[in-house]
């Protein structure tokens, strides 16, 4: 009698994993494999920009790329857009993860800086970066009487002014890439020892 009851109970036990509410996006790193980008430029060591003939993963205009993530074999989770969990075999895509990337279209940083230093009074640097109106104005005013040339040298050297299409400069992987540091509502603040010594609540 108990043997027959156990046989009836086994299918329910085997299907209990279908009630898992864990989404594949929340899996720990050791249980999922995300594809690594293969379309990398040899000259810049940056991901190639997305185009008509460029397959994913590639860098999009918003400086993100989509990586295909696949749960490993025998992992149960809910795929993106699905309602129920399933057992994965390691070959199917469960979701796509966004990763940051540099969107480079071909404007060389060294070229822009050299043009600004030697031909900036004629606006050639601005023409090269795609700012044709400012370049024409610099050409007609001899670089705003050389003052505009000096300002542009500083702006280009500090990478404050970039290409007009909004892309990043073409710079080698170990080149002088500057990253802007900012603060958001989620920024974590690390206080020094002086702060703790003068605040009793800590």
Low-pLDDT residue spans: 4-15
Content-based structural category: alpha+beta
Let me know the largest β-sheet: 3 strands, antiparallel
Number of helices: 7
Q: Give helix % range.
A: 25-40%
**Strand order, sheet with most strands:** 1-2-5
Mean pLDDT: 82
Order of H and E elements: HEEEEEEHHHHHEH
Q: What's the shape?
A: elongated
How large, in whole angstroms, is the Cα Rg?
A: 27 Å
Strand coverage percent: 5-15%
**What's the total number of strands?**
7
In whole angstroms, how far apart are the ends? 65 Å
Report on the structure:
There is one protein chain. Helices cover 29% and strands 14% of the residues. Strand 3 (76-77) and strand 4 form a beta hairpin. A 3-stranded antiparallel beta sheet has the order 1-2-5, with no helix packed on it. A two-stranded antiparallel sheet has the order 3-4. It has a two-stranded parallel ribbon with strand order 6-7. Residues 4-15 have low confidence and may be disordered. Helix 2 (109-119) runs antiparallel to helix 6 (147-157). The chain is elongated. By secondary structure, it is of the alpha+beta class. The termini are far apart.
């Amino acid at each position: 009698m108990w043997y027959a009851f156990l046989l009836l109970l086994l299918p329910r036990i085997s299907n209990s994993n279908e009630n898992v509410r864990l989404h594949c996006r929340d899996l720990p790193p050791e249980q999922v494999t995300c594809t690594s980008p293969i379309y990398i430029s040899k000259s810049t060591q940056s991901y190639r920009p997305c185009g008509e003939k460029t397959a994913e993963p590639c860098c999009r205009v918003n400086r993100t790329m989509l990586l295909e993530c696949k749960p490993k074999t025998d992992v149960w989770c809910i795929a993106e857009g699905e309602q129920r969990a399933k057992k994965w075999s390691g070959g199917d895509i469960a979701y796509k993860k966004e990763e940051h990337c540099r969107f480079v279209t071909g404007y060389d940083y060294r070229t822009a800086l050299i043009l600004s230093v030697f031909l900036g009074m004629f606006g050639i640097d601005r023409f090269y970066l795609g700012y044709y109106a400012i370049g024409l104005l610099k050409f007609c005013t001899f670089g705003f009487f050389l003052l505009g040339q000096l300002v542009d040298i500083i702006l280009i050297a500090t990478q404050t002014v970039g290409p007009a299409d909004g892309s990043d400069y073409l710079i080698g992987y170990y080149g002088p890439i500057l990253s802007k540091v900012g603060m958001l509502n989620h920024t974590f603040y690390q206080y020094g020892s002086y702060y703790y010594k003068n605040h009793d609540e800590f």
